[in-house]
Here is the input.
Amino acid sequence: MYGERLEQELRDYFYTETKTSEPSSEWWDKAILRLPEQKRRSGWFGFVPKTRLAWVLLPLLLLVAGTVYGASTIIRELFQRFAGHVEKTGLVQELDLSQTINGVTVRLERAYADPNAVLLGYTVSGPKKNYSSYVSELSTADGQKIPGMLTMGTVPGSEAILGEWDDSKRLAVITTFDSSMIQGMSSEINLKLEIEVEELSMFGSRKSLVGPFILEFSLPLQSGKVIDVGQTAEAEGIPITLEKVVISPWVTQAVFQFHPPYDSNGHPVPIVSLELPTGTLEKSFLTTVSGYYFLGDFTDQHGDCTIVISELVFPPNPPPDSGGKSFKGKAEDTKRLSGPWVFHFTLP
Amino acid sequence: LTESEEAALIRRSQAGDKDAFRALVENYKKVLFGTAYLMTHDRSMAEDAVQETLVKMWKHLPSLRQGVSLKAWLVRIVVNEVNRQRRKKQVPTVPLEYVPEIMDDCDALETTMIRNEDHQKLRRALEMLPSEQKETVTLRYFSDLTVPEVAAVMGKREGTVKSRLSRALDRLSGILRSDKEFGGRR
Here is the structure.
């Protein structure tokens, strides 16, 4: 058969093509001699969320922590906890891009992209003990800025949770961006990451700024499905529209449109769940201004799904004289409005 | 190497034994260099990619989980390394008229000439494939990875890899069929 013969021809061709170019035994010997001694893993660092939202998520992450693989790199560990299912299926890309400025090195080690999110894992190392990093900007090659969503990082103390890792990687971070905002995506996206690093003093106050570190790279975009739902449900006289659902390997995002004004002045936080065709009930794990995210790869699911907003939570409004400062409010001032708002759609 | 011999070498390498590491590398050096070379057609760049792959292999071998295919893991590292170097160096496209030195001392001269000619046609046909199809074909038929392994290396689904392979083979067949002399002299 021509197909089998072609396959054999390809094998022959590749064999011949590479055979004459192979490096000598001496080259391999030298390559192995150049390998560094393996580092002993040590250190005592903590795992602390870098945002208020991340603090809320910390218990969830601790619950899913499971066995700690002491020999893994810290970024690999973070990916396993934060995106273990895409890690397991080999969708996370190894990048290992780095830039050093004034002795401080930012190393972008691993990354992942799908129609919902871009996940970047990087470390910061240098002569000082304490660093804090700020992603100034992630943008596409054509200049579109991609909004950040959630950042998780390590600080002194987290070794107790995450296990030991390379001592030089004192700060390790996974940061996520909303790729659904990117216009005209193809199977690969070219990105530019700008990071600034702060060297912190002993007591954690800001000391000096290093950077910006600029890293350019491209990532394959994992495929996903967009289901335009456009369905409005009403409860307690309040309409809510489920505009679309974006299903991708890392998360599934439900995009709602709310129809203010409400009696309460605040923007409601909905309590959302997703029932899959298999009957499994998923609760949202991450919330942005309009998107509600369910962790897990549901791209291979087909059939009827239901999204339910069981209630709307209205956090207390800050007093007029708060001047935009952080405001917590009292629990009893929180208002709740029971639904449910129910949306049905089908996964093709 | 048997599976148990390889597992023993991995364990020793994970403990920092460079002799065991050397033996592991010996087993995979053809596939490592060959994959890098076929992706770049540049010996020096392939050597750089393999050197970096060895460093990463040495560094990350302790984190290799049981049951993971070492070959697929290594090929994935070398493919990522080649792609990283391409991004850094902006590799020029290989011109179609590029002719490699192909001589096989074991073959009779005539056979060698025919094979050489067929291989040049195959090379030209491969160069006409989109890069992702060419890479898929290389990983499947040179690196000898299974379809799930190719999918893991490329970060694609198995279905995508299967359809890419199928499209690539169809296209190669089409190109080569249009060349009546291909294989017709055997």
